[in-house]
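In the laboratory, one determines a bound structure by crystallizing the protein with its ligand and collecting diffraction data. In a computational setting the workflow is compressed into a single prediction: the sequence and the ligand go in, and a structural description comes out. We illustrate the idea with NAP.
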Amino acid sequence: MNVLITGSSSGIGLEFARLYAAQENSLILVSRSKQALNEVKQELITKFNCKNVRIIPLDLSKHGSAEELHKKVPDIDILINNAGVGDFGECVSMPIEKISAMISLNITALTELCMLYGRDFKNAKKGGVLNVASIAAFQPLPYFGAYSASKAYVLSFSLALAAELKEYNVTVTCLCPGTTKTNFFSAGGRAEISQEKGIMSASTVAALGKSGLERKQLIVIPGRQNRFFALAAKLLPHKIVLGYAKRMMEEYR
Ligand SMILES: NC(=O)c1ccc[n+]([C@@H]2O[C@H](COP(=O)([O-])OP(=O)(O)OC[C@H]3O[C@@H](n4cnc5c(N)ncnc54)[C@H](OP(=O)(O)O)[C@@H]3O)[C@@H](O)[C@H]2O)c1
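The predicted complex, in structure-token form:
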């Protein structure tokens, strides 16, 4: 199978690449850093004897990047929309360009890739999409507001797309991880978060996402505590959820 993974130079995306490489798939790896992608490619060749690894250095926050990618790689079986970024801080004090770039990556690129490859999958009557959202998709997070809203979009969009494409034998799964040990928080300027105790490993999260896609699950929330938070956010009144979230997030303002 041809598997395209965005954000596969580190973290959860890298673990997806390792899992699919171990099963002799052909991989298309996308992220901005050519050097990091080359290192991943070498690792997959050496460790898993993976013969077909194509790397595509591309900034998916740039306008037109999804179409560029689809033109370069028209034929895939599985799309993993994993690339994503997030910054903490008081929304009104953050640089507008940073938030816009985050929205372009987390929302626009993901949507356009789902549309472009989703059409192909619909016509072929087969294919799988795994979109990586977050546990933050289930409740608004003060001081992480635009990020949590972008992931709420990913969750809602994925579920609607799943319902539309089901009749064409196309699966759409949304993975909603809680805090996971990756570079995500260093990119967002809070590296210490990924050092906290009890945080899930990226390999566990990727494995759960992959098996969720294979079992045609709509939503995968790794970890019992995260599933509890998602349920509580759904059942409790907004005022209570927001008050709790604001207290929890205060240190990131
Ligand atoms: N870690 C967590 O606690 C956590 C929790 C919930 C959800 N998530 C989600 O999980 C996904 C993966 O994140 P991660 O935790 O594995 O973080 P990560 O280690 O920082 O990985 C992010 C990946 O995305 C790529 N990327 C970033 N900006 C990009 C751009 N503009 N264009 C193309 N690729 C780009 C990065 O490579 P380059 O820098 O080379 O571009 C990297 O490969 C994200 O969608 C994130 O929101 C993470």
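DSSP finds nine helices and nine strands in the chain. Keep in mind that any predicted model is a hypothesis to be tested, not a measurement.
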